[in-house]
Specification:
Layout (H helix, E strand, L loop, with lengths): L4 E3 L3 E3 L7 E5 L1 H5 L16 E7 L9 E4 L7 E5 L10 E9 L5 E8 L11 E7 L4 H4 L2 H15 L4 E8 L18 E7 L5 H4 L4 H8 L10 H4 L10 E4 L36 H28 L3 H7 L3 H22 L12 E2 L6 E2 L37
Parallel strand pairs: 1-8, 2-8
Antiparallel strand pairs: 3-6, 4-7, 5-6, 7-8, 9-11, 9-12, 10-11, 13-14
Function: Component of the sarcoglycan complex, a subcomplex of the dystrophin-glycoprotein complex which forms a link between the F-actin cytoskeleton and the extracellular matrix.
Keywords: Cell membrane, Cell projection, Cytoplasm, Cytoskeleton, Glycoprotein, Golgi apparatus, Membrane, Transmembrane, Transmembrane helix, Ubl conjugation
Family: Belongs to the sarcoglycan alpha/epsilon family.
Length: 398
Amino acid sequence: YTILSKVHSDRNVYPSAGVLFVHVLEREYFKGEFPPYPKPGEISNDPITFNTNLMGYPDRPGWLRYIQRTPYSDGVLYGSPTIENVGKPTVIEITAYNRRTFETARHNLIINIMSAEDFPLPYQAEFFIRNMNVEEMLASEVLGDFLGAVKNVWQPERLNAINITSALDRGGRVPLPINDMKEGVYVMVGADVPFSSCLREVENPQNQLRCSQEMEPLITCDKKFRTQFHIDWCKISLVDNTKQVSTFQEVIRGEGILPDGGEYKPPSDTLKSRDYYSDFLITLAVPSAIALVLFLILAYIMCCRREGVEKRNMQTPDIQLVHHSAIQKSTKELRDMSKNREIAWPLSTLPVFHPVTGEIVPPLHTDNYDNTSMPLMQTQQNLPHQTQIPQQQSAGQY
Protein backbone atom coordinates (compact mmCIF):
# COMPACT_ATOMS: atom_id res chain seq x y z
CA TYR A 1 0.00 0.00 0.00
CA THR A 2 1.08 3.55 -0.73
CA ILE A 3 0.61 5.93 2.22
CA LEU A 4 -0.40 9.37 0.98
CA SER A 5 -0.91 12.63 2.83
CA LYS A 6 -3.09 15.47 1.63
CA VAL A 7 -3.30 18.92 3.19
CA HIS A 8 -6.45 20.98 3.36
CA SER A 9 -6.52 24.73 3.38
CA ASP A 10 -6.43 26.42 6.76
CA ARG A 11 -9.67 27.12 8.57
CA ASN A 12 -10.17 30.04 10.96
CA VAL A 13 -12.50 30.14 13.96
CA TYR A 14 -13.10 33.00 16.40
CA PRO A 15 -14.12 31.82 19.89
CA SER A 16 -14.46 34.13 22.88
CA ALA A 17 -12.48 33.87 26.09
CA GLY A 18 -14.47 32.38 28.95
CA VAL A 19 -17.14 30.93 26.64
CA LEU A 20 -17.45 27.28 25.66
CA PHE A 21 -15.83 26.49 22.29
CA VAL A 22 -16.98 23.41 20.33
CA HIS A 23 -15.60 22.33 16.94
CA VAL A 24 -16.83 19.12 15.29
CA LEU A 25 -14.48 17.11 13.06
CA GLU A 26 -16.93 15.62 10.56
CA ARG A 27 -16.02 12.34 8.89
CA GLU A 28 -17.99 13.35 5.77
CA TYR A 29 -15.65 16.31 5.35
CA PHE A 30 -12.64 13.97 4.99
CA LYS A 31 -14.25 11.13 3.02
CA GLY A 32 -13.70 12.93 -0.26
CA GLU A 33 -9.96 12.85 0.30
CA PHE A 34 -9.81 9.05 0.45
CA PRO A 35 -10.42 6.69 -2.50
CA PRO A 36 -13.81 4.96 -2.59
CA TYR A 37 -14.43 1.25 -2.43
CA PRO A 38 -13.46 -0.87 -5.49
CA LYS A 39 -17.09 -1.38 -6.52
CA PRO A 40 -18.51 1.72 -8.23
CA GLY A 41 -21.56 3.22 -6.64
CA GLU A 42 -20.97 1.63 -3.25
CA ILE A 43 -21.13 4.02 -0.30
CA SER A 44 -17.81 4.15 1.54
CA ASN A 45 -17.87 3.91 5.31
CA ASP A 46 -14.20 3.64 6.16
CA PRO A 47 -13.13 3.86 9.81
CA ILE A 48 -11.51 7.26 10.32
CA THR A 49 -9.70 8.50 13.41
CA PHE A 50 -8.26 11.93 14.14
CA ASN A 51 -5.13 13.17 15.82
CA THR A 52 -4.97 16.77 17.06
CA ASN A 53 -1.98 18.68 18.37
CA LEU A 54 -0.67 22.20 18.69
CA MET A 55 1.64 23.01 15.80
CA GLY A 56 5.19 22.28 16.85
CA TYR A 57 4.10 20.35 19.97
CA PRO A 58 2.97 16.76 20.57
CA ASP A 59 -0.24 17.66 22.43
CA ARG A 60 -3.01 20.22 22.52
CA PRO A 61 -3.20 23.34 24.71
CA GLY A 62 -4.26 22.78 28.28
CA TRP A 63 -7.72 24.29 27.84
CA LEU A 64 -8.58 22.27 24.71
CA ARG A 65 -9.90 18.66 24.90
CA TYR A 66 -10.73 16.11 22.22
CA ILE A 67 -13.06 13.11 22.17
CA GLN A 68 -14.07 10.47 19.61
CA ARG A 69 -15.86 7.36 20.80
CA THR A 70 -15.45 5.11 17.76
CA PRO A 71 -13.76 5.34 14.33
CA TYR A 72 -17.26 5.60 12.83
CA SER A 73 -18.27 8.71 14.82
CA ASP A 74 -17.25 12.34 14.48
CA GLY A 75 -14.51 13.84 16.61
CA VAL A 76 -15.13 16.89 18.81
CA LEU A 77 -12.72 19.58 20.00
CA TYR A 78 -14.07 21.50 22.98
CA GLY A 79 -12.90 23.68 25.82
CA SER A 80 -12.99 27.12 27.36
CA PRO A 81 -10.28 29.55 26.18
CA THR A 82 -8.54 31.60 28.85
CA ILE A 83 -7.93 35.31 28.94
CA GLU A 84 -4.17 34.72 28.64
CA ASN A 85 -4.60 33.46 25.06
CA VAL A 86 -6.48 36.49 23.78
CA GLY A 87 -4.85 37.94 20.66
CA LYS A 88 -2.57 34.93 20.14
CA PRO A 89 -3.59 32.69 17.23
CA THR A 90 -3.50 29.02 18.17
CA VAL A 91 -2.80 26.66 15.26
CA ILE A 92 -4.11 23.12 15.73
CA GLU A 93 -2.94 20.43 13.33
CA ILE A 94 -5.72 17.93 12.53
CA THR A 95 -4.67 14.67 10.90
CA ALA A 96 -7.30 12.18 9.72
CA TYR A 97 -6.30 8.50 9.37
CA ASN A 98 -8.18 6.12 7.11
CA ARG A 99 -7.88 2.76 8.87
CA ARG A 100 -8.72 0.81 5.69
CA THR A 101 -6.36 2.36 3.15
CA PHE A 102 -3.78 3.80 5.62
CA GLU A 103 -4.00 7.18 3.95
CA THR A 104 -3.92 10.49 5.81
CA ALA A 105 -5.44 13.90 5.25
CA ARG A 106 -4.37 16.95 7.17
CA HIS A 107 -5.43 20.54 7.62
CA ASN A 108 -4.86 23.30 10.15
CA LEU A 109 -7.42 24.87 12.43
CA ILE A 110 -6.49 28.44 13.40
CA ILE A 111 -8.19 29.51 16.62
CA ASN A 112 -8.29 33.29 17.07
CA ILE A 113 -9.41 33.91 20.65
CA MET A 114 -11.36 37.12 21.10
CA SER A 115 -12.02 38.99 24.32
CA ALA A 116 -15.62 38.67 25.54
CA GLU A 117 -17.65 41.51 26.98
CA ASP A 118 -18.25 41.47 30.73
CA PHE A 119 -15.69 38.72 31.22
CA PRO A 120 -15.85 36.87 33.42
CA LEU A 121 -19.53 36.56 34.27
CA PRO A 122 -19.77 37.12 38.05
CA TYR A 123 -22.32 34.42 38.90
CA GLN A 124 -21.35 30.89 37.92
CA ALA A 125 -23.16 27.61 38.58
CA GLU A 126 -21.88 24.13 37.82
CA PHE A 127 -24.39 21.30 37.33
CA PHE A 128 -23.72 17.57 37.28
CA ILE A 129 -25.93 15.74 34.76
CA ARG A 130 -25.98 11.98 35.41
CA ASN A 131 -27.75 10.74 32.27
CA MET A 132 -25.48 12.31 29.68
CA ASN A 133 -22.07 11.68 28.15
CA VAL A 134 -19.85 14.55 27.17
CA GLU A 135 -20.25 14.07 23.39
CA GLU A 136 -24.05 13.97 23.80
CA MET A 137 -23.99 17.17 25.82
CA LEU A 138 -21.79 18.92 23.25
CA ALA A 139 -24.47 18.59 20.57
CA SER A 140 -25.86 22.04 19.83
CA GLU A 141 -29.53 21.08 20.24
CA VAL A 142 -28.96 19.29 23.58
CA LEU A 143 -26.85 22.10 24.97
CA GLY A 144 -29.44 24.60 23.78
CA ASP A 145 -32.22 22.72 25.58
CA PHE A 146 -30.20 22.69 28.80
CA LEU A 147 -29.43 26.41 28.64
CA GLY A 148 -33.10 27.06 27.98
CA ALA A 149 -34.09 25.13 31.10
CA VAL A 150 -31.48 26.99 33.19
CA LYS A 151 -32.71 30.30 31.83
CA ASN A 152 -36.26 29.49 32.88
CA VAL A 153 -35.29 28.91 36.50
CA TRP A 154 -32.65 31.66 36.69
CA GLN A 155 -34.09 34.43 34.51
CA PRO A 156 -30.79 36.16 33.62
CA GLU A 157 -30.26 38.79 30.97
CA ARG A 158 -27.12 37.09 29.72
CA LEU A 159 -26.37 33.39 30.03
CA ASN A 160 -23.38 31.55 28.58
CA ALA A 161 -22.01 28.03 28.81
CA ILE A 162 -18.52 28.40 30.25
CA ASN A 163 -17.16 24.87 30.26
CA ILE A 164 -18.12 21.19 29.95
CA THR A 165 -16.12 18.44 31.64
CA SER A 166 -16.59 14.70 31.62
CA ALA A 167 -16.99 13.03 35.00
CA LEU A 168 -14.07 10.75 34.09
CA ASP A 169 -11.80 13.81 34.04
CA ARG A 170 -12.91 14.58 37.60
CA GLY A 171 -11.96 11.16 38.93
CA GLY A 172 -15.21 9.38 38.13
CA ARG A 173 -15.36 5.66 37.40
CA VAL A 174 -16.16 4.13 34.03
CA PRO A 175 -19.80 2.93 34.18
CA LEU A 176 -20.79 -0.65 33.59
CA PRO A 177 -22.03 -1.41 30.05
CA ILE A 178 -25.48 -2.35 31.30
CA ASN A 179 -28.82 -0.55 31.27
CA ASP A 180 -27.37 2.16 29.02
CA MET A 181 -25.52 3.75 31.94
CA LYS A 182 -23.81 7.11 31.33
CA GLU A 183 -20.58 8.46 32.73
CA GLY A 184 -22.04 11.88 33.61
CA VAL A 185 -20.93 15.37 32.69
CA TYR A 186 -20.29 18.66 34.52
CA VAL A 187 -21.68 21.79 32.85
CA MET A 188 -20.68 25.24 34.09
CA VAL A 189 -22.82 28.23 33.12
CA GLY A 190 -22.44 31.88 33.93
CA ALA A 191 -24.95 34.71 34.27
CA ASP A 192 -25.00 38.39 35.08
CA VAL A 193 -27.71 38.29 37.77
CA PRO A 194 -27.67 36.69 41.24
CA PHE A 195 -28.82 33.12 41.73
CA SER A 196 -32.52 32.45 41.87
CA SER A 197 -34.29 31.14 44.96
CA CYS A 198 -34.68 27.74 43.31
CA LEU A 199 -30.93 27.32 42.93
CA ARG A 200 -30.44 28.52 46.52
CA GLU A 201 -32.69 25.78 47.88
CA VAL A 202 -29.82 23.31 47.82
CA GLU A 203 -28.12 25.37 50.54
CA ASN A 204 -30.99 24.84 53.01
CA PRO A 205 -30.06 22.86 56.15
CA GLN A 206 -32.76 20.27 55.39
CA ASN A 207 -31.37 19.61 51.92
CA GLN A 208 -27.82 19.57 53.22
CA LEU A 209 -28.86 16.92 55.74
CA ARG A 210 -30.51 14.85 53.03
CA CYS A 211 -27.35 15.09 50.90
CA SER A 212 -25.21 13.91 53.82
CA GLN A 213 -27.53 10.90 54.14
CA GLU A 214 -27.19 10.19 50.38
CA MET A 215 -30.78 11.21 49.73
CA GLU A 216 -31.97 13.51 46.97
CA PRO A 217 -32.79 17.03 48.13
CA LEU A 218 -36.20 18.57 47.56
CA ILE A 219 -35.83 21.16 44.77
CA THR A 220 -38.96 22.84 43.42
CA CYS A 221 -37.52 23.53 39.96
CA ASP A 222 -36.20 20.02 39.42
CA LYS A 223 -39.26 19.10 37.36
CA LYS A 224 -38.21 21.58 34.66
CA PHE A 225 -35.03 19.53 34.13
CA ARG A 226 -36.29 16.03 34.93
CA THR A 227 -37.93 15.45 31.55
CA GLN A 228 -34.56 15.41 29.78
CA PHE A 229 -31.77 15.98 32.30
CA HIS A 230 -31.24 14.15 35.60
CA ILE A 231 -29.33 16.62 37.75
CA ASP A 232 -27.53 15.64 40.95
CA TRP A 233 -28.42 18.64 43.09
CA CYS A 234 -26.05 17.58 45.86
CA LYS A 235 -23.11 18.23 43.51
CA ILE A 236 -24.21 21.66 42.30
CA SER A 237 -21.64 24.40 42.85
CA LEU A 238 -22.61 28.09 43.11
CA VAL A 239 -19.81 30.67 42.86
CA ASP A 240 -20.38 34.36 43.43
CA ASN A 241 -17.29 36.21 42.25
CA THR A 242 -18.62 39.54 43.52
CA LYS A 243 -18.31 38.43 47.16
CA GLN A 244 -14.96 36.74 46.93
CA VAL A 245 -12.41 38.50 49.08
CA SER A 246 -8.76 38.38 48.25
CA THR A 247 -7.00 35.84 50.39
CA PHE A 248 -3.63 37.61 50.14
CA GLN A 249 -2.16 38.35 53.55
CA GLU A 250 0.90 40.36 54.30
CA VAL A 251 3.74 38.22 55.55
CA ILE A 252 4.92 39.18 59.01
CA ARG A 253 8.57 38.38 59.24
CA GLY A 254 9.74 36.59 62.34
CA GLU A 255 11.52 33.45 63.35
CA GLY A 256 11.76 30.88 60.61
CA ILE A 257 11.14 33.27 57.71
CA LEU A 258 14.15 34.02 55.57
CA PRO A 259 14.72 37.54 54.32
CA ASP A 260 13.69 38.35 50.80
CA GLY A 261 16.57 37.59 48.47
CA GLY A 262 15.04 39.20 45.41
CA GLU A 263 14.15 37.56 42.14
CA TYR A 264 15.86 34.38 41.03
CA LYS A 265 18.53 34.99 38.46
CA PRO A 266 19.43 31.85 36.54
CA PRO A 267 23.01 31.44 35.30
CA SER A 268 23.78 32.80 31.89
CA ASP A 269 24.17 30.63 28.81
CA THR A 270 27.82 31.68 28.39
CA LEU A 271 29.19 29.51 31.18
CA LYS A 272 32.52 27.85 30.50
CA SER A 273 32.67 24.09 30.28
CA ARG A 274 34.22 22.35 33.26
CA ASP A 275 36.88 19.62 33.02
CA TYR A 276 35.90 16.60 35.10
CA TYR A 277 39.08 14.58 34.40
CA SER A 278 40.62 15.35 37.78
CA ASP A 279 37.35 14.49 39.54
CA PHE A 280 37.31 11.20 37.67
CA LEU A 281 40.81 10.35 38.83
CA ILE A 282 40.06 11.19 42.43
CA THR A 283 36.81 9.20 42.39
CA LEU A 284 38.13 6.03 40.72
CA ALA A 285 41.93 6.00 40.67
CA VAL A 286 42.52 6.65 44.39
CA PRO A 287 40.15 3.89 45.67
CA SER A 288 41.56 1.50 43.05
CA ALA A 289 45.15 2.16 44.20
CA ILE A 290 44.24 1.58 47.85
CA ALA A 291 42.47 -1.67 46.96
CA LEU A 292 45.54 -2.84 44.99
CA VAL A 293 47.89 -2.17 47.94
CA LEU A 294 45.64 -4.08 50.31
CA PHE A 295 45.51 -6.98 47.83
CA LEU A 296 49.31 -7.15 47.61
CA ILE A 297 49.66 -7.12 51.39
CA LEU A 298 47.14 -9.92 51.75
CA ALA A 299 48.83 -11.95 48.99
CA TYR A 300 52.24 -11.59 50.73
CA ILE A 301 50.79 -12.75 54.04
CA MET A 302 48.94 -15.72 52.55
CA CYS A 303 51.61 -16.92 50.07
CA CYS A 304 55.04 -15.69 51.22
CA ARG A 305 54.69 -16.19 54.99
CA ARG A 306 53.66 -19.85 55.02
CA GLU A 307 55.75 -22.09 57.36
CA GLY A 308 55.39 -25.35 55.41
CA VAL A 309 55.33 -29.01 56.51
CA GLU A 310 59.09 -29.32 57.06
CA LYS A 311 59.24 -26.45 59.50
CA ARG A 312 56.21 -27.80 61.29
CA ASN A 313 57.92 -31.26 61.70
CA MET A 314 61.09 -29.66 62.97
CA GLN A 315 59.22 -27.86 65.75
CA THR A 316 57.15 -30.93 66.73
CA PRO A 317 58.50 -33.50 69.30
CA ASP A 318 59.56 -36.90 67.86
CA ILE A 319 57.22 -38.91 70.07
CA GLN A 320 54.25 -36.89 68.78
CA LEU A 321 55.31 -37.50 65.20
CA VAL A 322 55.60 -41.26 65.88
CA HIS A 323 52.12 -41.34 67.37
CA HIS A 324 50.72 -39.43 64.45
CA SER A 325 52.43 -41.77 61.98
CA ALA A 326 51.10 -44.85 63.79
CA ILE A 327 47.57 -43.46 63.72
CA GLN A 328 47.84 -42.78 60.00
CA LYS A 329 49.23 -46.27 59.33
CA SER A 330 46.43 -47.95 61.31
CA THR A 331 43.81 -45.90 59.55
CA LYS A 332 45.24 -46.91 56.17
CA GLU A 333 45.17 -50.58 57.13
CA LEU A 334 41.54 -50.41 58.22
CA ARG A 335 40.57 -48.75 54.99
CA ASP A 336 42.39 -51.39 52.94
CA MET A 337 40.72 -54.17 54.92
CA SER A 338 37.32 -52.66 54.41
CA LYS A 339 37.76 -53.01 50.66
CA ASN A 340 38.23 -56.84 50.91
CA ARG A 341 34.96 -57.80 52.52
CA GLU A 342 34.20 -60.51 49.94
CA ILE A 343 35.75 -63.65 51.62
CA ALA A 344 35.21 -67.36 50.89
CA TRP A 345 32.59 -69.26 52.88
CA PRO A 346 33.83 -71.99 55.30
CA LEU A 347 33.75 -75.59 54.02
CA SER A 348 31.11 -76.52 56.62
CA THR A 349 28.66 -74.21 54.90
CA LEU A 350 29.15 -75.60 51.38
CA PRO A 351 26.62 -78.08 49.87
CA VAL A 352 27.25 -81.79 50.72
CA PHE A 353 25.87 -85.16 49.59
CA HIS A 354 23.42 -87.06 51.72
CA PRO A 355 25.15 -90.22 52.91
CA VAL A 356 22.12 -92.46 52.26
CA THR A 357 20.04 -90.95 49.47
CA GLY A 358 22.89 -89.20 47.63
CA GLU A 359 20.91 -85.97 47.37
CA ILE A 360 22.58 -82.58 47.67
CA VAL A 361 21.91 -81.17 51.09
CA PRO A 362 21.68 -77.34 51.32
CA PRO A 363 24.26 -75.61 53.48
CA LEU A 364 23.58 -75.16 57.10
CA HIS A 365 24.03 -71.43 56.88
CA THR A 366 22.39 -69.66 53.98
CA ASP A 367 23.51 -66.31 52.73
CA ASN A 368 20.66 -64.43 54.37
CA TYR A 369 20.85 -66.38 57.60
CA ASP A 370 22.26 -64.78 60.69
CA ASN A 371 25.04 -67.15 61.74
CA THR A 372 25.70 -65.29 64.95
CA SER A 373 22.51 -66.61 66.49
CA MET A 374 23.26 -70.24 65.57
CA PRO A 375 25.48 -72.55 67.58
CA LEU A 376 28.76 -73.61 66.12
CA MET A 377 27.71 -77.29 66.14
CA GLN A 378 24.28 -78.82 65.94
CA THR A 379 23.06 -82.02 67.43
CA GLN A 380 21.99 -84.97 65.36
CA GLN A 381 18.35 -84.40 66.23
CA ASN A 382 18.44 -80.96 64.66
CA LEU A 383 19.99 -82.11 61.39
CA PRO A 384 17.54 -82.64 58.55
CA HIS A 385 17.44 -85.97 56.73
CA GLN A 386 19.42 -87.58 59.52
CA THR A 387 19.72 -91.42 59.20
CA GLN A 388 18.80 -93.32 62.34
CA ILE A 389 21.55 -95.81 63.38
CA PRO A 390 20.22 -98.85 65.23
CA GLN A 391 21.46 -99.21 68.74
CA GLN A 392 23.22 -102.35 70.03
CA GLN A 393 21.28 -104.58 72.37
CA SER A 394 22.68 -106.49 75.34
CA ALA A 395 23.75 -110.17 74.91
CA GLY A 396 21.35 -111.39 77.49
CA GLN A 397 18.35 -110.59 75.31
CA TYR A 398 19.32 -112.95 72.46
